[in-house]
Amino acid sequence: MASLRHKDLLGIEQLSVGEIQLILDTAEALREVAARPVKKVPALRGKTVVNLFFEPSTRTRSSFELAEKRLSADILNFSASTSSVTKGETLLDTAYNLEAMSPDIIVIRHGSAGAPHLLGRKCKASIINAGDGMHEHPTQALLDGLTVRTIKGRLEGLKIAIIGDVAHSRVARSDTILFSRMGAEVCVCGPPTLIPWEYEKLGAKTTICLEEAMDGADVIMMLRVQHERQNEAFFPSAREYASLYGLTRERMRAAKKGAIVMHPGPINRGVEIESEVADAGCSVILDQVANGIAARMAVLYLLSGNAGLTPEKSR
Amino acid sequence: MKKNEEKNLMSAAEIDLVLTRIAAEILEKLGPDEDFAVIGIRRRGVPLAERICARIASSRGFAVPMGILDITLYRDDLTTVSNRPMLRETRIDFDINNRSLILVDDVLFTGRTIRAALDGLVDLGRPKRVQLAVLTDRGHRELPIQADYIGKAVQTELGEIVEVRLREEDGKDGVVLLRPARRDKKTKKQ
Fold first, then answer.
1. CATH top-level class for B5-75+86-179?
2. Which regions of chain A are under pLDDT 50?
3. Do B82 and A306 touch (CB under 8 A)?
4. Annotated catalytic, A152?
5. What pLDDT is attached to residue A315?
6. Alpha helices in B31-148 (DSSP H)
7. Residues 6 or more apart whose Cβ sits within 8 Å of residue B134
């Protein structure tokens, strides 16, 4: 029987094609729970899940929280701004303190790549990476994969364009690994200052030309322009970025018929995506949000028996 | 696990007859005007429910709604089994409130599957009543649960396995009794 024999979910990198399929199939089965009058199933009853967020997050955190609640888990929320981290506690000390409360699963978001891996080695609980620095954001990639598979019926053979600030995006990395592993053709695109050329090693094509990336693409994934990086001079101005890399109605007219537009959110209307495109029928941004809960429920369910397994070898 | 000593309990023809009888019994017991639906429990309860529905439709002249229930999330051994069992979709596209429901499964054994199914149904609404139809009842109940419609009751030892084969899942119809070759550790059918 197919199963997920990992203690932790640290990145898409660690998952095989079969394991990704299992998670997506499980998520598809769990989607039905959201349509019920009683949106709750008892699968994680008695399990304790800690949400440990060192970076601000609204949607990922509430998505995890809802997924946990719908599986009947008990939840403990820690955020950096309200915890002892502000009093100088190290990540490991925080982790040991949490571990002493014997949680079954810890969901962690941290500004430094590898923080979940460190916890994975030190804690008995299963660790789920909810975003670590510029490294990975596996549950976002899984929900993206689920969204595309639901609409297109498959992942294999599709053309995926990922456009924007690829360099600072953990979503771009996890998505690229997932989609290329599942047999799709990934092309990443953005200003030359924001494209790491090593992406070719992950199996993606790279280009700085938006038209080239969009040509024949079945999925157009726009990344958020991170305003906090505006002063770092990766591009001259938001207006110039919008004119070169913004997804406009006019550019969508040239896109392949039936192409869908995705965005991990929060969107900057008028910068990377024009308002009319974000609200158009081809936009599946809100499907992504709904699928996020199902994908996270699937990961929580599949990992929930695995605390105490040998941790992954970190890559 | 090595299995041997296969003994036939029901032939394909017998399964056919028994399902026709169950369909007739359901209609007789519920009366002509009853608003009811049939729910198949994954996996082998689903093709059985489909066949019962087809028989009901042909004798009644119109179709009754049919749903599919996956009980995995409601199992009482989820905290003890280390491998998460494969999850499949529950698909019940109609309102179960104030409706009579016929649950259909292949083998009634410990009763734990039915306990889980009842929990699952409660989360979907409040049915008027729930009845149970099974192809075989092999005894050894661990919970106070019994079936309303039974295809065939068979005497079994606890260590034996009753295997239902259906053409939709296994290519051909038949019910067989398997005795393990050695006294192996065995998981009970949930």
1. alpha beta
2. 1, 314-315
3. yes
4. no
5. 44
6. 45-60, 112-124
7. B104, B105, B106, B107, B108, B147, B149, B150, B151
Nearest to A285 by CA among A174, A144, A189, A173: A144
DSSP track, A101-142: T--SEEEEEESSTTHHHHHHHH-SSEEEEEEETTTB-HHHHH
Average pLDDT for B129-133: 97
pLDDT of residue A313: 58
- For residue B125, the chain A residues in CB contact (below 8 A) are 37
Q: Is the pLDDT of residue B189 over 60?
A: no
Confirm if B87 and B70 have CB atoms less than 8 A apart: yes
Residue A201: left if φ>0, alpha if ψ -120 to 50, beta else—which one? alpha
ipTM: 0.80
CB-based contact, B81 to chain A, within 8 Å: yes
Residues of chain A with C-beta less than 8 angstroms from the C-beta of B90? 29, 32
Q: What's the whole-number average pLDDT of chain B?
A: 90
Output the six-digit token pair for A68. 């946990």
Backbone angles phi, psi at A198, to 5 degrees: -65, -10
8 Å CB contact of A305 and B70: no
Locate A71 and state its tokens.
């599986």
The angle at the Cα of A29, spanning A27 to A33, to the nearest 5 degrees, equals: 95
Catalytic residue among A61, A109, A159, A168: A109
Three-class secondary structure of residue A309 per DSSP? coil
pLDDT of amino acid B38 = 97
Are the beta carbons of A201 and A180 closer than 8 angstroms?
no
Q: What is the CA radius of gyration of chain B?
A: 17
Assess B189–A contact: CB distance below 8 Å, yes or no.
no
Residue closest to A225 by CA, chosen among A192, A261, A268? A268
What pTM value is reported for the model?
Answer: 0.90
Q: What pLDDT was estimated at residue B73? A: 93
In the block, tokens 């080239």 appear at A212
Pairs of CB atoms within 8 A across A/B? 53
User: Does B91 contact A30 at a Cβ distance shorter than 8 Å?
Assistant: no
Reading the block at residue A249, the tokens are 């109605």
Q: Distance between CA B112 and CA B76 in Å, rounded?
A: 8
**CA-CA distance, A107 to A292, in Å (whole number)?**
15
List CB contacts (< 8 A) between B187 and chain A.
none
Q: Which residues contact A104 (CB under 8 A, 6 or more apart)?
A: A47, A48, A49, A73, A125, A126, A304, A307
